[in-house]
Structures are given as structure tokens and as C-alpha cells.
## 1
Amino acid sequence: MEPEPDPGRDPRIDGETTAEDLLRTLAPQVVGVLTRRFGDFDWAEDAVQEALLAAATQWPDEGVPGNPRGWLIQVASRRMTERVRGEQARRRREDLAARQLPADRWTAPAADREDPAGRDDSLVLLFLCCHPALSPTAAIALTLRCVGGLTTSQIARAFMVPETTMGQRISRAKQRIRTSEVPFRMPEDEERAGRLDAVLHVLYLIFNEGYATSEGPDLQRVELSREAIRLTRAAHQLLPDDSEVAGLLALMLLTHARSAARTGPDGELIPLAEQDRGLWDARAIDEGTALLTATLPKGPLGPYQV
């Protein structure tokens, strides 16, 4: 029997992963690269959406490139450059983008080669979306869209509002971050602590959407759950002494461990008592149990640990 894929691993490792899964995982990383290089989160998100559309059109016919992340960065960078040049009347925005570029000309990684030194800015992007200038609701919606890869319609259903309303809310949130001109970097300790509650809430919602999807014929979207675990693991590495970050990671691991046994051959739900426990991911269970064992005696008890 093939082992359950390790939670949070690069989806290119898993042979059954589709191009759509890969794009969803790479999108926030590419948004992070472009935001860091060009200094405009709103434009970067739009450019990456265009690059994702190009990939969805071309990759099925031409195949996935050797470095899909580099391919997306190249295409999205061209879109960013075209937009900067085309906005001659908006000199301030063009100057801001130019100031964010390094002194030496930046070159996107090759699309046909591996990029072992590639920097993953997903966690920085996560904290950026949870900006203090935004209301908690706006921060959660924006993060689900830009980091979690959920569609506007999925987020609208989660908040029980019309899709157009949610689209406007996300657009206003991006505009507010743009006008704040906050630097694209990990916030300092005190500022980071103020955003952490919103970050954990967002990660929990992303995981829930993967555990029991609100759209489509499938019960679960395992790639979303894995992405939530990956980001939460990164947050735990950043804040190893925070008991609630550890509690959330443990909750995800222990819940996700049963994913392979939750559905039958036709996608039907299998109750817990009837699940084949041999399909449960023992490594994830051991890791989640160890996290809880180490965390419960140390910090205040919060909702994720409970």
C-alpha cells in the first residue's frame, strides 16, 4: 500500500497531484516574490491571476515546465512591467515600483530549470493580508483569496453574503493595503503578536475548506488542507513557544491524518467508527500528539488546543 503523502509537502512530489493543485500552492509564493520586488501587492495579485490563467491554458498542451514557479514568475513579471509602463499618468505608482527594484537588474528564474534557492514568501504574504488597517472580516477574506486560493464565491458562501459584495470587500482590502504603503516584510515582534489571532483564524478556515469543501462534488480538498498545514508549520517554526500556534498545528495534523479513510471508492462519507484505521497517517498522529504533549503544560489553554 502506498503511504499517505506527508502533510505540507511540495505537491510536485505527489504523482496524483493535478496542475490545478500545483498552481494553487505556487500562487501565494509568486505573489510574494512580485510584491517584494515591485512593491505593489494589488498589482502583483492581479498579475499572478493572469499568469495562472495562462498556465491553465498552456500547460495541459505543452506540459508542466521544469520550474513551474519560475515560469509563473516570468509571466507575471511581464504583466507587471507592462502595467507599470502603461500607467504613464500615474507617475507616483511607477516611481514606487522602481524604488522597490534592486540596484542591479532582477532576472526571474528560468522556467525550465529547478529553483533550489527559491524564496517562499507565503508566510510574509499571510501577515500582510492580516494588516492592522483592515477589519478582521476583511483580513480573513483577503487571505483566503490570496494565500488560501479560495474563489470569491467560496469565500462569499463562508460569510453568507452575495459574491459581488465579497468581491468588492476584497478589492477594498487590497486598496487599503496599497495606500498604507506598508513594506513587504515580516512584521516586528510586537506588531506580529497583534496580527497573530487573525492569522490563526484564517489558517483554520483554509483547513476547514479542505476538510469539508463548500463547493464541488468532492467531500474534501486535500491540497487545501496540506497548504494550511504547511503555512501553520511555518508559523510554528517562527513562533515555537506560542502554545496556540502549536495547538492549531496539532489539531490540523490529527484531523488530516484520517483523510484517506474518510471517503469510499465513490466518494461517499465513511463514519469514524467504520473507517479503516490502517489508512490513517501514523506519522501525522505521532507528530500531533507530540505537539500537544509538549504544549499543554507550557502555555495558556486556548481554543485550538481545546
## 2
Amino acid sequence: MTEPNSDLEDLNPRTGVQMYLNDRHGEVSEATHQSHGYRLERFLEWCRDENIENLNDLTGRDIQTFKLARKAEGLAPATLKSQMDTLRVFLRFCASINGVHDELPESVNSPSLSDDEKRGTDILKAEQAEKILAHRSKYDYASRKHVEIRVLWATGMRMGALRSIDLSDTHLQNQFIELKHRPDTETPLKNNVRGEREVALDTTTTQVLRDYIDENRIDSVDDYGRNPLLTTKFGRASDNSVRAWMYQMARPCKSGMGCPYDRDPDRCEAVDGQTRMSAAKCPDSVAPHAVRRGAITHHLQQDTPPRVVSDRMNVGRDTLSEHYDSRTPREKMEQRRNHLPDI
């Protein structure tokens, strides 16, 4: 670090974070905004524990100490990288308002990730997805949960996109769904207007949606008078509701597969009835984003061209390859082989 900069103005850590979040509001999606707030809250807790009351005093060694403290908590490499990347962006903002030294943001050492770490390990495999779909189709046909897993697996869309769908966005006669960015009524898309698109549906998914709407959908409107596709008696299904339903469905014992861990259903911590998120404690349970990752990988395994997957799932080609394509090198080789001429 250089000698203290006389141009710095006192900046309390919490004040700095609030100024940063206010500045980013509207520039990023609501989900990204919330994620930044959560990550920076961990930094604020560390500042409090270390008695850091003025960001002017922060040094590169402090940043490294914070990184090691988070690493010691057992964070996954990808989670630690997200934490440090967000901290770097925050400190760049602080530097722009004379809250920290100009060179401090670049002292943030974000960990490098292997290809597997970039993609993550939380993925719904095709075999598991097929079992869940078969079980829902037989025992819970055209229910709210059946619609969730059916649409997420068939389209690879994000959870927020699924929540955003209104009845008027479903064009079942022509077999497609419209996705629209509507932040003013609390259903933004991850990539804002760039996430708007029309998504084709297969015949089975279309029929499940039609039967759900005709027979099982709860007829309720949201706080803005809109008619959501996924509803509860209170209106549009919340993020937590959609996430909880996926956790519940993904448990092997709820998909006709039995428990691979020989747990007693009466004592298992992941059984229903404790809390809405109890199912998340099952080792085999997955979140909606794991369905998206699995669906994208499955499309690629079925030889769907990457440009088609990119457009359909609203994900850049580089991001698709780096974070979502979970095919093994051998799978990729064999698929390339199928396109080679017999010389």
C-alpha cells in the first residue's frame, strides 16, 4: 500500500454498502442485486468482528485476511470466487467516491476455478429427471409441481422466468410461451429485455399445461391484477415456493426410487412438515437452477446445436461452454465423431 491518500473521505462500511446497492439498483436484475447484498453482508460482519469502522483504513492485507476467513468456513471455490469478485466491484465503487485507496480493489485476489468448478456440481441428471417426470405424470398429473418440473426440464428456463409467466403468455394452440421483462410488477427477467423471447413447447409439455390450466390451477391474481400461470391461494407463486417444490420433488423417496441412504422416513430431517425447505436437506435434492443446468447439458448431449441452445435458454455461447456444458470430454468426442465424414 502507498502512503495514506489525503483525498479520502471517511466511509463507514455499512454506509458504503448501502450507497453501492443504491447505485446498482436498476442496473442489474433483482436477483443479482439481492446476491450482491447477501455477499457484502458477510463482509460487513467481518468488518464488525475486526472493529473496522472506516473503509479508509482498509489494506490489501485486510482483504487477504477476509478471504482466508471465508475460505476457512468451507465455502466452495465457486462461492468464494463470487464473494471476492463482488467485493472487488464494491471496492471499485468505493474508490470512485474517495472511500478507499485507488489501488485497493486490484489487491483482491479472486481464486481461479477449474472447468468443473466453473460449471458447478449441482445438476439434475437426465436419468433422474425422467424418473421424476414419470412419477409426476402417473401420480400427480398436471399438478402445480408437475408443471414446474415439466416446463423447467423441457425449456431450460430460469426459475424467475417460470414465475413471470401469465396465462396470456401461454399460446398453447401454437405451442409456445412468451417471456416478458416486467420489473414494474415484480417479475423481471435475469437479462432484462434481452431475456425476452418466445420459447417453443413440445406436444407433451403443451398438453400438461393445458390440463393444469383447465383442471388444477388455482384461480387467483397477483398484487398487480395479473393472472399468473403458477399460483397459490395468495396469488403468484413466490421464489421460495417454486424452490421448495423442486426440492420436494427431487427427493428419490418422492419419485418412486426409495431412499439410497436407508433413512427412516419418520426420522429423516428432509421429510415434509418440519419447514417448507426441509426437503433441501436431502443429499439428492436439487434447486431449480440444477434443472436448468441439466436441461442444457441434455440438449447438448442430444446434439442440439449450441447456437439453438444459446438462444432458447438465453445464455451466451461463452457462458454456455464455461458454466453449463457438463458433458465429459469423451461425450464431446463421440458426438463430434458422428459429424465426421467417412474418409
## 3
Amino acid sequence: MNQSLSSLAAARRNHKTKHNQLPWGIVVLAAIIGIAFFLFANVPQAAIMWAFGIIIGFTLQRSRFCFTASMRDPVLTGSTSLTKAVLLAIGVASIGFAYIQHSAAVSGLPIPGNISPVGPNTAIGAAMFGIGMVIAGGCASGTLMRVGEGFLIQIITLIFFIIGSLWGAHDFGWWTANIIPKTKIFLPTLIGWIPALVIQFGFLIGLYVLANKYGKRSDKSHDLQ
């Protein structure tokens, strides 16, 4: 009897009271709409950016979309669902960017977008960022998403993310003068738009097929175990 009572007391202590978050949700929604109307009345472009930011943030949170997980999960768990999602996202973005850039080129306007040289700086930065985001447990988008969810480690990551960005901006002149190549390579200008798109989507499709096969093989090995 005493053991049953003590077990019941322990269960009550461990039971987490569920709080109704609906009032907080209504307050946040009202604040989002209020800020949107304020921005639209003063800077309409900022209101559009605010709306897109909210939509993208909500989509990231509900889908658990994270670039870190897309690179980490195939190694740790064998899952490639996020890897394939990232490849699809890059493909969709490539179509949009190609349309915008091609339209500018046909109109004789400067091609928009951050077209940067590829060199040792790319490899060094990719390695440093890849190691950092795996240790931190999130990329830029994943970190911002989890900060909104209240994860303490991601708040610390965001602080050092800002510090690292400021440090990089401070030293960017040295990197430009000593490491970053001066020649920029833009494939559509070099080989033409159609061949460049064929290479781009051929590469993405090839990676998607490999990710799909790897994921299926991993699922079969887990089933056998």
C-alpha cells in the first residue's frame, strides 16, 4: 500500500501540467498583424518582407527544415528525407534565380545576385562552417527557428554567430586582398544559359538519385536488424 502511494506521489511530481497556450497565440498573432499594418502604412516593402519572413519561419518550424540535419542525418541515422528536401528547395530556387537573372541579362541590366569568386576561401569557409554548425546543432535557419522555440544552446549559438559575422566583416578586406581570387566565374556568361542550367539540374538530379538510393538501402539494413 505504502509503495503504491509513493509511486502515485512520484508520478504526480513528474507529471507536467499542461498550460493553455491559446491566449499567448492570440496575443502573438495580434502583434504580427499589428506590426504588418504599421509597416504597410509606412514602408510597404518592409511589410512584404515581414509577411514573407513570418511565412518562411512558420514553414521552417513546422517542417523541422534544417541544412545541418540534411548533411548530418545520412551519416548518423541513414535518413535522407531532409537531404532530398534541400535538393528540391535548391532546384526551385534555381528556377527563380535563373528567370530573374536571365530577364536582367536580356534587358541589358546588371545581373542581380551575389556572384562571388570560387577559391580556397570557399573550401576554408565551408569546412569551418560545417564543423561549427554540426557542433552547435543547427545552421543559420535552424538556429533562428530554435531560438524562437526557446532553446538555450541556440541562443548562445546565435550570439557567437553574430560575433563571428562581425569578425569576418572586419577582416574581409584582408581575405579579399590575399586569399579570394579576383576572377568571377558565372556559368551562363561562360558557356550559355541552357548548358549552365543543364549542368545545374543534372548535378542536383544526380545527388537526389544518390540520396534516394542511400536512404532506401539504410531503411533495408534497419529492417534486417
## 4
Amino acid sequence: MFELKTLLLFAATALAEIVGCYLPYLWLRHDRSAWLLLPAAASLALFAWLLSLHPDAAGRTYAAYGGIYICFALLWLWLIEGIRPTLWDVAGSLVALAGMAIIMFGPRHA
């Protein structure tokens, strides 16, 4: 159950970070409204709060989170931006997920 809770929390964290970064990107690169900065700031605040909910040490959490973030960024690329990830993108994300699993769920020696 710990593993599922960790993965779901990482997923919510990644989504909050991606939204918080994508909205300013739309404003800066695609000439959208500056009002997008308000929900972007809220989303990044949510991201920081969600990242603080993980029970493990901050450094370990940040390192492992990167693997989930990579996968979510590629899903975003595909589902939101309409660009299908390449085989190399998928392979890289699987390597990142393996690293995340090793970091978060590997045995700990006290």
C-alpha cells in the first residue's frame, strides 16, 4: 500500500508542477494572457506542498520524484501537445522509473 500511495502522490505532484510550468510557457511562447500566471503560481505552490507530504527524506524524495516527472512530462507531450513520444523517449522514461523504484522502494539499512 505504501508503494501505491507514493506513486499516486508523485503523480499528483508531477501534474501540479507541469501545469505550473506550462501556463507561463503559454504566456511567454504562445502569446496567451498574462492572467495564466495566477493559476500557474497556485499550481506551483500546490506542487511544493505535495512534495512536502512524502514521508522520506527530502533529498531522496526529490531524486526519486524525477523519474515520475519524466514519465508525466512525456505523457503531457503526447496528450496535451499532441506529439507522440519516440521509442527513445519511452525507453528513457522506463530507465527513469526503474531508478525511482530503486531509490524509493529499495531496502534501507538503519
